[in-house]
Specification:
Blueprint: H1 6-10, H2 14-18, E1 24-30, E2 33-41, E3 51-59, E4 64-68, H3 69-73, H4 83-86, E5 89-90, E6 94-97, H5 103-122
Antiparallel strand pairs: 1-2, 2-3, 3-4, 4-6, 5-6
Length: 126
């Protein structure tokens, strides 16, 4: 069952987003995942008044996904992704892990998430 493995599989990933919880809103925190969105309304007309989804850790059947929407919305962040982390990329803003990430990948995800928070803050999206 996916939920029963949440603590083991996502223990390293959840804190990467959780450390920014004071600047973001926690929208989900359960055995199935952890999600955060902006506190400010979206600047985009198609989502006017709604918060922007920022990121999540989601438990799948065979992996844990780390979603970071700023990568999709701000392509300049993609240049910060090493080939090792790029191998984990699924789609435009998700990284999948079958096992907890090693310390180098975890440090890179932390740095990438920090850069995303800084960038969205400079754009006044947080």
């Amino acid at each position: 069952m996916a939920g029963s493995d949440f603590a083991y599989k996502s223990a390293a990933l959840k804190p990467v987003l959780e450390r920014h919880a004071e600047r973001l809103t926690v929208t989900a925190d359960s055995t199935e995942g952890y999600s955060v969105s902006t506190r400010t309304p979206s600047p985009f007309p198609q989502h006017a008044g709604e918060p922007l989804f920022f990121g999540a850790v989601r438990v799948g059947k065979a992996y844990v996904g780390f979603h970071l929407m700023p990568i999709y919305m701000c392509p300049e962040l993609s240049g910060k992704i090493t080939p090792a982390l790029k191998k984990r990329m699924q789609g435009k803003s998700c990284f999948n892990f079958k096992t907890p990430p090693d310390s180098a990948l975890l440090a890179e995800l932390t740095s990438l998430t920090d850069a995303a928070v800084d960038l969205w803050s400079s754009k006044k999206w947080l």
